[in-house]
Amino acid sequence: MADDSTTTIRATFDTREAADLAVEHLVQQHGISRPDIFIQSATDRNTTGSKPSGGDASHEGGSRDDAALEGEIEVSADIASDQIAAVQRSLGDAGAIRVSGR
After folding, report:
1. 5-46 pLDDT, tens per residue?
2. CA-CA distance, 47 to 41, in Å (whole number)?
């Protein structure tokens, strides 16, 4: 009998760029539908991450001051239990600093 149970997997990232890459991995490598993936601040603060990257970095080499860098970003999705190990690897490859399942 196949195990069709699901679990919620959560990963935290330092940058929005890494969180966006993780979403692409979930969609393209694991077939998870975009509406089933959630991105939010890992804290109660509005944030674009805890480190500048991509559009958060200025052309002068410093970080911009118009984007709040006040905490980590969380990506979560409900996945089939048999996908846990593969999804954890993909999230790690995308730059996750923590991955947990519930």
Report:
1. 889 999 999 888 899 999 999 999 999 999 999 999 888 776
2. 6
Reading phi first (left if > 0) and then psi (alpha if -120 to 50, else beta), residue 71 is in left
Query: What's the one-letter identity of residue 19?
Result: A
CB atoms within 10 A of CB 72: 22
**Rounded distance between C-alpha atoms, residue 41 and residue 31, angstroms:** 24
- Cα gap 75→32, rounded to integer Å: 13
Tokens, residue 36: 């089933």
Burial grade of 96 (CB within 10 A; 0-12, 13-18, 19 or more): buried
Buried b (16+ CB within 10 A) or exposed e, 36-58: ebeeebbeeeebbbbbbbeebbe
The DSSP bridge partners found for residue 98 are 12
Angle at which helix 84-94 crosses helix 16-30, to 10 degrees, equals 140
